[in-house]
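Pasting as-is:
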Amino acid sequence: MHRADHRPSRRAFLDVSGTMVAAGLTAGCASDSAPPGRHAPTAPATPTPVVATGRHQAGITLPQPAQPNLLAVVADLGATVAPGPLLADLGRAIRTLVAGNDPRLLGLPPGDLTVTVGVGPRLVRTAGASLPGAADLPRFSRERIAPRARGGDLLMQICAGDALLLPVVAAALVDQAGDRIHERWRQSARRGTNVPVGNGLTAPRNPLGFIDGIVGPHTTAEQQRDLWLAGPPAVAGGTLAVLRRMELDLPRFAALSVAEQEAVFGRRRAGGAPLSGGTVASDPQLGAKTPDGRYLVPADAHVRRANPSVVGAGLMLRRSYSTDEPAPGLLFISFQNDLRTFTATLTHMDTSDALLQFTTTTASATFLILPGFDRQRPLGSQLFA
């Protein structure tokens, strides 16, 4: 959703928080007593806290599976603002928020809260024009993006099991930044129910009903190869993120038969197995054909057009979230250590991926997700000494 050029007021944040609280109370109302012969519902398990410090920022591979609720806030820095002190301030605030020691939490337990911070290409170029993350995303087809919804200097990705935390934590971070930042846009989103996909991993369904994020750098070796930046030292331990907010033509997709929907994705809707056979964890057999010579996985199926071996690119750690505002759709986030992994994949999809005809991109940005931090090594200190 697009924001005015001025910084949002405290009243606006309180209004958002109040709306979220009201929604949470409405959804959570239940009688304290159970009907005779029935047991009272079991209280939900307390989420496991996620440590904010370390070699990598939290909110990418930890926790696993990812929390169901996300709020992405994209902002610009003022023309004369030095990124180093701002990022160090944000890192200190993140530590206190995640630890539950910040009064701006308003008494809410942080649970599995994570905050992940990235900086946009303009800021990266001030540290070095050849650094990973210095390149802007190119433009692609099927985009309808307002100027304020393209690019940005700062990303704050806030994730939690408790949706009430998101606007409260965002308000605390924006308060910490003060007038040093000017918000561009923000997007709240949620993940679908997780489905087992083999090897102890799970993946959620997307708003189109299909399991999303099956393929990715899941093992330590794959993450070292395709996810984490190994160098130069200023960015080692970080990664590159791409955010794409899309409107989905849900009525038109829903009007297709299940077989037609499966042909769009190249997978079975119910279980996620490729149309070439096997289980959800099976690799699609892209050369497999029917007796009359037709590909089992259609030539324009998403699983073929976005396949890393076909594209000739690495693996992306993909996160897809459902959105309601400003329109029903999807917030797509990918993490990779080479921006070409994303750009080459979308370029290959752009020519004939059947899925794209149901999407319109309304926001787009890329960020260098900074390396991890701790008390001795403030957030962003390797890049902005």
